[in-house]
Amino acid sequence: MSLSVFILILVAAALTLHVARYWRPLAFVASAATTVILVWAAQNIGAGTSEIFGMHFGLQPLARDYLIVALALSGILAIATSFGDVRRGLGFLLWSWVVWLVALAIDDFVIGVFAWVSGLAIIVIAMEPRHAQRTGGAAYFLVLIVIAAGLLLIGHRFVQLFPLTPDRITLLDSAVLFLAWGLGLLLAIAPFILWLGPMADETPPPIIAVLLGLGQPLGLWLLYLLIGQSPRLLEQTDLNVTLMIGGLGSIFIGGLLCVFERRVGRLMSYAGLLALGFILIDLARGTLEGAAFAVIEIFARALSLCVMAASVTIARAIPNRWVKYLALGVFLLGGLNLVGLGLGVALATRWNVLLDFEATDRRIFILILLAMLGVLIGLARYVLTWLETLPAQAPAQDALAPTPPPESISGRIRFRLRGAWLAWRARAGQRVPAAVRYTAGGIAEHWRALFAGILLSALGAFLLWYSVSPNLWLQRALETAAQLAFIR
Amino acid sequence: MPSLNDLASAFALLGTHELEFGLVIAVGVVVLVADWRIALVALAAQYLLVAVLLSTLIPLQIAAVRMIAGGLVAMMFYITARRVQPNRRRRAQTPPQESRGLTPRAIFWVNLPFRFVGLTLVAVGVIAASDQIVLLNAPLLFWVTGLWLTMGGLLTIALTRDALRLGMGLLFFTSGFGIIYLSIDNSLVIYALLVIADLVIALAIAHIASAPAHFQGKRRGEM
What we know:
The structure holds two protein chains of two kinds. Chain A is mainly α. Chain A folds into two domains: 3-390 and 443-482, no CATH class; 410-442. Helix content of chain A is 76%, strand content 1%. Chain A is built from 20 helices and two strands. By secondary structure, chain B is an all-alpha fold. Helices cover 77% and strands 0% of the residues of chain B. Chain B is built from nine helices and no strands. Mean pLDDT of chain B is 80; it is low at 216-223. Chain A binds chain B through residues 110-111, 114, 117-118, 121-122, 124-125, 127-135, 138-139, 142-143, 146-147, 149-150, 153-154, 157-158, 160-161, 202, 262-264, 316, 385-386, 389, and chain B through 84, 87-88, 103-104, 135-136, 157, 160-164, 166, 170, 173-174, 177, 181, 184-185, 187, 189-190, 193, 196-197, 200-201, 203-205, 207-215, 219-223.
């Protein structure tokens, strides 16, 4: 399958979700179906490159792996969103991928940056301003997107001009300054974190997960695409030192902010910031092993944020107590994985970094441990709040409560038609065996709880399996990272 | 119907000084005047003047695309502003005690003298900066104009809490950035992408300005 066909499928899937969101069962079925179709289609994209308007498009193995995982996670978030009463953002979980796919597949930094920030701008449309007509987190995020894109383009221009005057190293230094500034703003690397909280206040958790977990790493992808084209950017500048300082700052500030936070959006964002810090430190090593660890960290961060967002969304949508407890458990698993305390692969990569610091600088080692503890405290406080809000008994809905007939003519027609349909259904139901009738009735009444429970159990099981099979993931990450241009 | 040649001859009448003066006035209007209709006219005029300025760097036919995009953006903003107008009117008619609960309180009082002082400081800053620094040997005319528009846009963004006004500031910023970037890299791809970006920004701002509020009073410990 070619990339252009896949983009068409992606547009069709996003459009389907966007239209299907009005009716809950249809939204659920469409979300599940599009997830399966998109993951299948992404696996079958051809390895070759195609040329459009002189630009080359092709998916590298790592980009393909990322796309498959990202579409699966976006689909899972879409399914979780479809259970709720507010499904406005359903299509936006996929719309951004239409342009982000271009950013993943293209070999041109400028077009890639435009595609990336266009996807981020589309995400803004899915946000929910807290005050009508007033500026807030969503509007300021849009401002940041525009400013950061400008900075990245200017940084790229400096890189382009450097080969004309190779003796002027200041051009490369200026390039790193603008690139670090632009990427720092969009990735919310310390100290550019100010937009993270207000943005999280106006954004539903699934959109936060897509934005931070799946959208942000594309910026790093573009940076390393540029480094692959101009290796001197890494060799003759202090880019790795900048990444290291940004990573450490993100870990400390992310951990500190989590301690005081009890809003789930902000908690996820700040905990994601801590995980981003580890990614930057891994990248700053500049080795194949560091790149592979960064890849694993990126996947772990995306997975954790999506699991947390899905569990919170389901817990808000479904009144059944057992679903809420299950969601709480899965949320905790996701949180622990984000901190790096989930057994297995994330733990291995985190402790690799920690042991390095333990050997070189114990103060940083202790500070990182404290930051991780900060996220744990934030998680614990939020879980306690969650437990307090759980009702002792879910309010029973009286299905037999009489409904007064509407007064309008169309309302009366609808009322009569519904009455006829219910009477026919009751008569038909009497011919079905009682056991089957009760089971079908139970499923019809609690289908949301049933499928939400299945989804949560599957997510929890996947997290556990993912955690106990570290060699599988590390091997794959090493294989795909070794094929990246900047490593070669 | 006027042809492109008529347009070119009309543009030729505008000298550099007229263009500069027009853009100074446009930024001044958006920063200082509170009425959204006048600010929208200033935004549309800015698109026209920037297209004239860019026609010295790129072919006129291509520069005219920016004017068309500007027209679309202005139309989008106009429709959005008209749609939200009843809410604005209702807010204006609500007694101050009640309206205090409806709208967020400004962080500090941003009145006309404050905005004027801000604009003056930005103007002084632009003159000083353009005298000291030049980005990658950009021609002075484009450097000063671009800097003025970007700084004016940022000032508008910083001073306002109205989403539409913020959008106007953002579009001034992109216009300024477009001028600076095209003067150091005369790439038509970048130009096309900037025009598309303006439309995407306008779309997002129109959404933010017209979306209903989701404020539920929950702040800390919300579930």
